[in-house]
Amino acid sequence: MHFELALKLLWRDWRAGELTLLLASLVIAVGTVTTITLFVDRLQHALLNESATFLAADRVISASDPIDPAWLEKADQLGLVRSETLSFLSMVFSEDRAQFTSVKAVDDHYPLRGQLIVSESPFVGGRPIDRGPAAGEVWMESRLFPSLGVAPGDVLDIGVASFPASSVLLKEPDRGGGFSNAGPRVMMHLGDVPATEVVRPGSRLTYRYLFAGAEPALEEFEQWVRPRLGQNERWLGVREGAESIGNALDRAERFLLLGGLLGVVLAGVAIALAAQRYALRHYDHVAILKTIGATPNGIDSIFVIILVVLGLMATLLGSAIGYGTQLGIVSILDPYIPIELPAPGFRGIWLGLVTGFICLLSFALPPLLKLRATDPVRVIRRDLASASVSDRMTYSFALAGTIGLMWWYSADLFLTLLIFSGAVVVVAVLSVVAWLMLRSGRVLGMQAGSAWRLALAGMQRRGGENTLQILVFGLAIMLLLILYLVRTALIAEWQATIPVDAPNHFAINIAPEDVAPIRELFETRGVRAQPLYPMIRGRISEVNGESARERDRRRWRSGERDGDGGPGASSDRNLTFAVDLPDDNKVVSGTWWPNSYDGPAQVSIERSMADSAGLTVGDQLVFSIQGREFPAEVTSIRAVAWDNMQPNFYIIFSPGALDDFPSTYMTSFYLEKDQKLFLNTLLGQHPTMTVIEIDAVIEQIQTIISQVTLAIELVLVLILISGALVLLASIQASMDERFRQHAIIRTLGAGQRLVLGSLAIEFCVLGCFAGLLATLGAEITVFALETRIFELDYEMNPELWLIGPLTGTVLIGVVGIAATLKVVKTPPSTVLRQLA
Amino acid sequence: MKGINLEIKASETVAIVGASGSGKTTLLSLLAGLDTPTRGQVFLGPYELTAMDEEQRARVRAEMVGFVFQTFQLLGSLTALENVMLPAELKGERSAADSARELLSRVGLGHRLNHYPNQLSGGEQQRVAIARAFASSARILFADEPTGNLDTTTGLHVIDLIFDLNSEFGTTLVLVTHDHRLAERCMSSVQIASGELVTDVSSAL
């Protein structure tokens, strides 16, 4: 074997600077992947943990009856930590007042994730705490203190038992915004519930079983439990727990994934270019080695050894750098990320190492393997074209490597093939366009001054290489533009989901006579509020002549309805009526009634309910409200933006249909943090109404979104670095040819200014073309990505057509001139001698 | 190349002469196994080069062939000493350094062992190439216009060196040149024109 010889050549090449770019590309590839993977991994865990606090657990089973104890045993066997809570509605009495409340009884382990925030006085202050109230005391939400006329420490009665209200509960992690918890919160210890005697057969109870632990155990438990879930049991994961955060997380993950993929591809291109150049510069070496007796197999083994040693160095160095960068990023971000990042896993490092070697094999090995076929006669006849085994081999290696890596990262063959075939089409189209552009450049150049002519003639003479170079530049810029555009669209979309001034309080149970005074109070205090909607409790009792309960049961048994959810037809609902279609609602089937409609009752059903309950336009329903029944026809199905923080309804009646029933009203409104004491006034004047505070939830969502946004920006920066490296590699690859050409021109008497001018023009024109192509490619790809993968609404980006070419021109102009300044500075004789 | 029938005996020195483009370099490539003819046979020692693949021909070169080129063809990334050590290293010999050092002193470069090719003059580079050619204990040396890139004085010095070492090692020498004075120093010379053998003038010696 030629181990020593290979090492010697490697060492000499390294000292001569031949390997710098190849090694740098490899190190950056590995470093980028390691950094992104480690960071994303940690961030994902952190975000999941953070989202888990919305559940106060990693997973939850919610049930209306106690679940089978065997399930809990299974959880214990799997090593999961668990906790139980029980929620029910109950009256709470102070000395002289009573209030309907939503009681939540918790055990000693609650909460498993997240923290409670308690305070000594209503509405203000607050400190985090890791457990619920101790046995024998209760905690109450701020607004209960004014409405019951008590102060912290006073004694209250729940059922037949008495408890001191020892602390004010400001925030509980899994409060959510649902109306099942409509009443103000009282939190007590689970062990105290029997003493109150309020829980009786027939009480409406919600049992929640909280689980936390290692992800594999949780998944095993989920697989075990899911098939066993009954009609009244629901399984909740992090995503089900917080719909809007689930979506944001999904998209962020996809974006980061995409970013990682593009980063690898960019680095791969840089590696391929650097390896190509390395190989080109070694054809002569190999020819000499061959004349003195090196066999083709010997050549292979020499360069494979070089590559393996290089790969080892690069992957180790890259992983170390990636690890360090990631630590650096985390420490920089530390003050801005209020969540704790878990320690980095080995997956990132492993991924980086494997990526390094796959990149090396698929991008760097093929050009080097071509060296074996170098014709030794080359030693005598330098003009002999470099032997090429087959470019097909090079490309198929690179393609296979890219697809393999993409697939491995995304674990999604469809996404991989989609992006990949898209890229192939774009590359094909772009190469044709690039070639045409070069041709037209020549025609234009004929009339121009001499630096222009020199530049454009040079560009066209090396037409093939320049087409490739424009393509590489264009691809790099395109990938950056794509990431930038998708990022911008994502962030805009998230910010639009929850605007800064989104309503953060709901008010329900408003008596009809309070509607006018409350509206007036909002106005005088400058509180932004939504319209007041009437709200009547009721349910569907018949669907097309069949009992709704029977129908639900039948559908559930036959599997038409999911075991774990989706609203059924027969559950109790909040009903409302409206003249106009509410904001953020969209009719997807049927028609909304006209403004002046005054006929028989019509209803509009929300889409997810219509789907899971199997209702369609034209169905004849019978409603049961306050003991009376009346018919109505389904005339439309609506899509509702549930996460818009406004009053939303599953069922809306046509005007007039509910006139015979006494109703309460609801609305939502926005309060600044320092306006919170307004609640005291509001509840003091209207003690019968209920206010639900969701400002804490919104704040949490916004925190998560800003964290994800930050993560995305960071990934973008990393990819930018890869992109710049590709540009550098690509320019380096064309350096020898440029050196030679300009040395000759200078010996012929061209001044430095002319050479520099022609170089500048050449790079700027290349950059401009590349930028144009990049813009075209980016628009097409972003359209596909946003509509197919990210489910966003696509909009043209006219400013891109300016930004793209401009970025290309400036970026490539500057980088190119900086990289080739040496051409001008080096005396031509030196250049010619070195190239001889 | 056509109709070439040529035999060179061991320890002979043969010059291949001809005008530019006459095909003398091609003939050299064929004889040395750097290239293969479309038809015909080439034998080198006990081996039929034309029946071998590139891998086998490379082994033959490693075993018995040395080269000196017009453009020196040293590996720029290796020192003079390392360049001379290369052939032995490719054969897997261990004590390559000692004999390489010896050869370099023999060509008068004992003091420039660790210089890189670009730190050496053209004559010095060619002397390193000559040392390298003899380092593989070659039985036949092919030289392609060895003085073509050198001035007259240096060229003469290099030629002396080649012939001295050649007789010292008892090597067969095949020399491509258009320099008649150089050709005259060989035992015989072969003239090529348009790819054909014009004369096979055996030396009177």
Largest beta sheet: strand ordering of chain B:
4-5-6-1-7-8
Oligomer: heterodimer
Query: What is the arithmetic mean of pLDDT of chain A?
Result: 78
Strand content of chain B: 15-25%
Query: Roughly what percent helix of chain B?
Result: 25-40%
Q: Write the element-wise H/E pattern of chain B from the N-terminal end onward.
A: EHEEHEHHHEHEHEE
- Let me know the average pLDDT of chain B: 86
What is the count of β-strands of chain A? Answer: 23
Q: How would you characterize this protein structure?
A:
The complex is a heterodimer of chains A (836) and B (205). Chain A is α+β, with helices and mostly antiparallel strands and 836 residues long. Among the domains of chain A are: 1-53 and 244-411, no CATH class; 55-241, no CATH class; 505-670, no CATH class. Chain A contains 24 helices and 23 strands. Chain A has a 6-stranded mixed β-barrel. Chain A has a 6-stranded mixed barrel with strand order 14-16-21-18-20-19. Chain A is elongated and about 110 Å long. Chain B is of the alpha/beta class and 205 residues long. Chain B has one domain: P-loop containing nucleotide triphosphate hydrolases (Rossmann fold), CATH 3.40.50.300. In chain B, strands 4-5-6-1-7-8 form a 6-stranded mixed beta sheet. The mean pLDDT of chain B is 86. The interface between A and B is medium-sized, with 33 and 35 residues.
How are the SSEs placed, and which strands pair?
The complex is a heterodimer of chains A (836) and B (205).
Chain A: H1 3-15, H2 20-52, E1 59-63, H3 69-77, E2 81-93, E3 98-106, E4 116-119, E5 127-129, E6 138-141, H4 144-148, E7 155-158, E8 161-171, E9 185-189, H5 193-196, E10 205-212, H6 215-225, E11 233-236, H7 238-241, H8 243-280, H9 283-291, H10 296-333, H11 346-369, H12 391-410, H13 413-445, H14 450-461, H15 463-497, E12 505-510, H16 515-524, E13 528-529, E14 533-543, E15 546-547, H17 548-557, E16 573-577, E17 585-590, E18 602-606, H18 607-613, E19 620-625, E20 628-640, E21 651-653, E22 664-670, H19 678-685, E23 690-693, H20 695-733, H21 735-747, H22 752-789, H23 800-825, H24 828-835
Parallel strand pairs in A: 3-9, 6-8, 16-21, 18-20
Antiparallel strand pairs in A: 1-10, 1-11, 2-3, 2-7, 2-10, 4-5, 4-8, 6-9, 7-8, 12-22, 12-23, 13-22, 14-15, 14-16, 14-19, 14-22, 17-20, 18-21, 19-20
Chain B: E1 13-18, H1 24-32, E2 43-44, E3 47-48, H2 54-64, E4 65-68, H3 80-91, H4 96-106, H5 122-135, E5 140-144, H6 152-169, E6 172-177, H7 180-184, E7 188-193, E8 196-201
Parallel strand pairs in B: 1-6, 1-7, 4-5, 5-6
Antiparallel strand pairs in B: 2-3, 7-8
Helix pairs in contact in B: 3-4, 3-5, 4-5, 5-6
